[in-house]
């Protein structure tokens, strides 16, 4: 099964993707994670996108389509893919359709996660992540059980915060979401693939809604 998690920054796409990976053995393809990895490796691509990402703007369609094409080419889709943060524009959505079709694959569901703006800003400004395993935390709603130690992998003092998780960049990311990405809701509705879940509940409640949307 190949699915898209579609939603504004902070909606919980990454959090829910990790649950789906554990439960279903699916593979997550997150263009945001790939771009942050490129930055961490100091590659030319990483240097090119650093400032664009920090201020909350979108990188070019060409770059992200290339990253996804590379992953699909190397067989990532064999286990079923969760597309997270991609596609984000109509040209990216068209390109994904073509890439999947060329591999004889299809998209099964698009899960739209709805959360209001004030909650999104609170989520993103409180977020931190384990640099060792990628587990996502929050200052208020999801703290590690032992201060400074990752629940998942046990790494100590490995927590990192993203350069774009400040209110100014977040407002830009929200603006870009409504302008460039929200048209995809209608695009996938018209294809009969869209299911909308309330992303405002607790993490486990949202996971339950997603399970239902995938299995119906
Ligand atoms: P990307 O990495 O994709 O970031 P994003 O879309 O802004 O999404 P986030 O990672 O911020 O949020 P999320 O929905 O995954 O939330 P999470 O689960 O972490 O993109 C970053 C940048 O890369 C872009 O701005 C752009 O520059 C570039 N880029 C990437 N893809 C691109 C593309 N396709 N085209 C062009 N440019 C691209 O949760 C957030 C917080 O909330 C966490 O602290 C979590 O613990 C908490 N939380 C989660 N669920 C709940 C809940 N149910 N209740 C309470 N708290 C919760
Ligand atoms: Zn960890």
Give a written overview of the molecule:
The chain has a domain at 2-115 and 180-215: 3-Layer(aba) Sandwich (Rossmann fold). Helix 1 packs across helix 9 (203-215), helix 4 (61-73) packs parallel to helix 5 and helix 6 packs across helix 7 (167-181). The longest helix is centred in the last third of the chain and has 15 residues, at 167-181. Strands 2-3-1-4-8 form a 5-stranded parallel β-sheet, sandwiched between helices. A 3-stranded antiparallel β-sheet has the order 6-5-7. With 216 residues, the protein is of the alpha/beta class. It has 9 helices and 8 strands. Bound molecules: BIS(adenosine)-5'-pentaphosphate and zinc ion.
Cα separation of the termini: 13 Å
Small-molecule components bound = BIS(adenosine)-5'-pentaphosphate, zinc ion
Query: CATH topology of one domain, what is it called?
Result: Rossmann fold
The CATH class assignment of one domain is Alpha Beta
Low-confidence stretches: none
- Chain oligomer state: single chain
User: How is the largest sheet built, in terms of strand order?
Assistant: 2-3-1-4-8
Basic shape: globular
Average pLDDT reading = 96
Rg of Cα set = 17 Å
Helix content: 40-55%
Order of helices and strands: EHEHHHEHEHEEEHHEH
The helix/strand class is alpha/beta
Tally of DSSP helical segments? 9
Number of strands: 8
CATH homologous superfamily (4th level) name of one domain: P-loop containing nucleotide triphosphate hydrolases
Q: Which CATH architecture of one domain would you pick?
A: 3-Layer(aba) Sandwich
Strand residue percentage: 5-15%
Q: How would you characterize the largest beta sheet?
A: 5 strands, parallel
Organism: Oceanicella actignis
GO biological process, one term: AMP salvage
InterPro entries: Adenyl_kin_sub, Adenylat/UMP-CMP_kin, Adenylat_kinase_CS, Adenylate_kinase_lid-dom, ADK_active_lid_dom_sf, P-loop_NTPase
Catalytic activity: AMP + ATP = 2 ADP
């Amino acid at each position: 099964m190949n699915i898209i998690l579609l939603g504004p920054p902070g909606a919980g796409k990454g959090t829910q993707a990790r649950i789906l990976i554990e439960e279903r053995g699916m593979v997550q393809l997150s263009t945001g994670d790939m771009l942050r990895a490129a930055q961490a490796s100091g590659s030319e691509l990483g240097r090119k996108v650093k400032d664009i990402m920090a201020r909350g703007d979108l990188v070019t369609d060409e770059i992200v389509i290339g990253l996804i094409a590379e992953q699909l080419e190397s067989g990532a889709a064999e286990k079923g893919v969760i597309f997270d943060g991609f596609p984000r524009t109509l040209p990216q959505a068209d390109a994904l359709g073509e890439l999947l079709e060329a591999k004889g694959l299809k998209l099964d569901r698009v899960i739209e996660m709805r959360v209001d703006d004030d909650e999104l800003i609170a989520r993103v400004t409180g977020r931190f992540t384990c640099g060792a395993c990628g587990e996502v935390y929050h200052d208020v709603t999801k703290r590690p059980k032992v201060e400074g130690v990752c629940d998942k992998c046990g790494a100590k003092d490995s927590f990192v915060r993203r350069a774009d998780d400040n209110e100014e960049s977040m407002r830009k990311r929200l603006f870009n979401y409504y302008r460039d990405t929200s048209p995809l809701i209608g695009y996938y509705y018209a294809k009969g693939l869209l299911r909308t879940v309330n992303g405002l509940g607790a993490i486990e409640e949202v996971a339950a809604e997603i399970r239902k949307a995938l299995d119906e």
